[in-house]
Write a structure and sequence with these properties.
Order of helices and strands of chain B: HHHHHHHH
CATH class of the largest domain in chain A: Alpha Beta
Largest sheet of chain A: 6 strands, mixed
Radius of gyration of chain B: 16 Å
Number of domains of chain A: 3
Strand content of chain B: under 5%
Strand content of chain A: 15-25%
Largest sheet of chain B: none
Order of helices and strands of chain A: HHHEEHEEEEHEEEH
Helix content of chain B: over 70%
CATH architecture of the largest domain in chain B: Orthogonal Bundle
CATH topology of the largest domain in chain A: Heat Shock Protein 90
Number of helices of chain A: 6
Structural class of chain B: mainly alpha
Distance between the termini of chain A: 61 Å
Oligomer: heterodimer
CATH architecture of the largest domain in chain A: 2-Layer Sandwich
Chain lengths: 306, 158
C-alpha cells in the first residue's frame, strides 16, 4: 500500500492538508467537558437506581440467611441427621476462616466444605471433588488479595467470602459460594456446586445433556433471546449484546462448565458473574431456562429437570 | 475494579486531549459544523457511559475512535432515512470555510465503510492494524477496502 506514485502522493498530501485545516470550534471543547460530567453522573445514578431496586430483594435475602443460620446450629443439624431420608444428609460447614486487616486492606472469608453422612455410603467422590473446587476458587481470590496488598501499599481493598445452601432436596444438594471484592468499585463472583446425592457425584452442566449435543449453543441462544426481551421491556436492563461499540465484550456463548444450578422448581438456572455479560450495576445475573426448550437434548435418564 | 476507574480516567483524558482529532473525524463524515459537534458530544457521552465495558485503559484512544466512527455512521444512516422519508434534498455542508478539493467530494460519495478506512489510515495517520482494530475488521478486509477506496479517488498505485 505504500507504493503510491509521486503525483498521487501529492493528492493525498493535499487531502491531508485539507483535513488538518478543518477549523475546530472552541465551544466544542467546552461542551465536551460538560458532556463527560453528565455521562459520569448518569453512569453513577444508574448504578444507584439498580442498587435501590435490588435492595428489596436484598432484605429478603438477609432474612433467609437468618433462617439458614438457625437451621445450621449444632442441635438442629443433629436433629436433622436423625430424620430418616432417602439420600444422605449433606451439610455445609465452615472449614476455615481467613481474616486480615492491615491499613485499608480488609478480608473476611469463610471457606466452607460440604460433608455427607448416612444414606448410600459417604459420597466421598462427589464431596471431595466439590471441596477441592471450592478450595481452588477461594485460594485464588485470597492470593489475588494478598498480591494486591503487597503491590499497592497505599491502596484500599476488601474481600468477603461467604456461602449458603441454595438447594437441598432428596436428590440434589447445591452450595453457593460467593465473593465480593471491593477496590474502587466492587465485583461479585459466585460459584454453585451441586452434589447428586443418588449418584454420589458432582453434577456438571454437561451431565444434563446428551453426549455430543451442542448444549452450549442451544443455551446461549435461549439466553440471548431472554436478554433481548428484557432490554426491550425495561430500559434499565443492559446486557453486553449486539453492541457495536464494544464488540469484544459482547456475549457470544456460555462456557462449557458455566455456573448453573437446578432450582426448587426443577428448572435449570444459568448464572453469570458481575461484569461477565452485563455492566457492573446489573450485578450477578441469572437466567431460568424453560425445560421444554431444551427437551430435545436432555439426557432422558438424568431426569432432574421438570 | 481498580482498573475500572483507570479506564474511565483514560477515556476522559483522551476525549479532552484529542478533541480536535475526534472533531475532524466527525466533520469528515458529517460535512458541517453543527452535525460534527453533535456527533462528538454523543460519542463522548457513550464512551464515558460505557467505559466500564472496556477492559484495558491502554485501548481508550483507539476505542474512542471506534465510537466516533460508529456514531457518525449511525448519524448518516438516520439522516439518509429522514431524507428519503421527507423527500428533501440533504442539507449541504453549510458553506465550508476552507477550500474543498474534488478528491474530497469523491471521498464524501464513498460508502461509510470505505470512507472510514481512508480517513483513519491516510488522514488520521493511523496504522493498518489500528484501523482494523477500530473498525473491528481483520487486516485483509481493511487492505481490500483501502485498495478499492484509492481506486475511487483515482489514486493509482505505482
Amino acid at each position: 500500500m505504500n507504493k503510491i506514485s509521486e503525483k498521487n502522493r501529492d493528492t493525498l498530501q493535499e487531502m491531508r492538508k485539507g483535513y488538518e485545516e478543518i477549523p475546530v470550534p472552541n465551544k466544542g471543547r467546552e461542551m465536551v467537558e460538560q458532556t463527560i460530567e453528565r455521562a459520569k453522573r448518569d453512569k453513577r445514578r444508574k448504578r444507584k437506581l439498580i442498587w435501590l431496586r435490588n435492595t428489596a430483594a436484598g432484605a429478603a435475602a438477609a432474612f433467609a440467611c437468618i433462617i439458614v443460620l438457625a437451621n445450621s446450629s449444632p442441635q438442629i443439624a443433629h436433629a436433622m441427621e436423625q430424620v430418616p431420608v432417602l439420600g444422605a444428609v449433606v451439610r455445609a460447614v465452615t472449614l476455615r476462616t481467613y481474616e486480615a486487616k492491615e491499613g485499608d486492606y480488609e478480608a473476611d472469608a469463610e471457606i466452607p466444605q460440604i460433608v455427607a453422612e448416612g444414606g448410600q455410603g459417604e459420597l466421598t467422590e462427589g464431596t471431595e471433588e466439590i471441596n477441592m473446587d471450592i478450595q481452588q476458587f477461594t485460594d485464588q481470590l485470597i492470593s489475588e488479595f494478598e498480591a494486591d496488598r503487597k503491590e499497592y501499599t497505599d491502596g484500599r481493598e476488601s474481600l468477603d467470602i461467604s456461602y449458603e445452601t441454595v438447594v437441598d432436596n432428596e436428590r440434589l444438594y447445591t452450595i453457593k459460594v460467593w465473593a465480593v471484592q471491593t477496590a474502587a468499585s466492587g465485583a461479585e463472583t459466585v460459584r454453585y456446586y451441586t452434589l447428586d446425592k443418588t449418584a454420589g457425584r458432582q453434577l456438571h452442566l454437561k451431565d444434563l445433556f446428551e453426549e455430543g449435543s451442542d448444549y452450549v449453543s442451544v443455551l446461549s441462544d435461549l439466553i440471548k433471546s431472554q436478554m433481548r426481551a428484557q432490554m426491550q421491556a425495561d430500559e434499565g436492563k443492559v446486557y453486553f449484546l449486539d453492541d457495536e461499540d464494544v464488540p469484544e465484550s459482547n456475549f457470544e456463548k456460555i462456557q462449557e462448565d458455566q455456573n448453573f444450578y437446578i432450582n426448587e422448581g426443577g428448572h435449570l438456572v444459568i448464572v453469570f458473574d458481575e461484569y461477565e455479560v452485563a455492566p457492573g450495576y446489573m450485578g450477578v445475573v441469572s437466567f431460568e431456562i424453560p425445560t421444554e426448550e431444551i427437551a430435545e437434548i436432555l439426557r432422558p435418564d438424568v431426569g432432574l429437570l421438570k | 475494579m481498580r482498573k475500572q476507574q483507570a479506564v474511565e480516567d483514560a477515556v476522559h483524558e483522551n476525549l479532552v486531549n484529542n478533541y480536535d482529532r475526534y472533531y475532524r473525524l466527525a466533520y469528515r463524515f458529517a460535512g458541517n459544523e453543527q452535525d460534527a459537534l453533535d456527533i462528538v458530544q454523543e460519542g463522548a457521552y457513550r464512551a464515558i457511559f460505557k467505559s466500564g465495558q472496556l477492559k484495558n485503559a491502554e485501548y481508550a484512544g483507539t476505542w474512542i475512535y471506534r465510537i466516533i466512527v460508529n456514531t457518525a455512521k449511525e448519524f448518516l444512516r438516520k439522516k439518509n432515512r429522514e431524507t428519503l422519508m421527507g423527500d428533501q434534498m440533504p442539507e449541504q455542508g453549510q458553506e465550508d470555510t476552507y477550500e474543498e478539493f474534488d478528491v474530497n467530494k469523491a471521498l464524501d460519495e464513498m460508502n461509510p465503510a470505505d470512507r472510514s478506512v481512508i480517513i483513519l489510515h491516510y488522514l488520521e495517520g493511523l496504522t493498518l492494524e489500528q484501523t482494523a482494530e477500530i473498525l473491528n475488521e481483520n487486516i485483509s478486509t481493511v487492505k481490500s477496502r483501502l485498495y478499492r477506496a484509492l481506486k475511487k479517488l483515482r489514486i493509482k498505485l505505482a
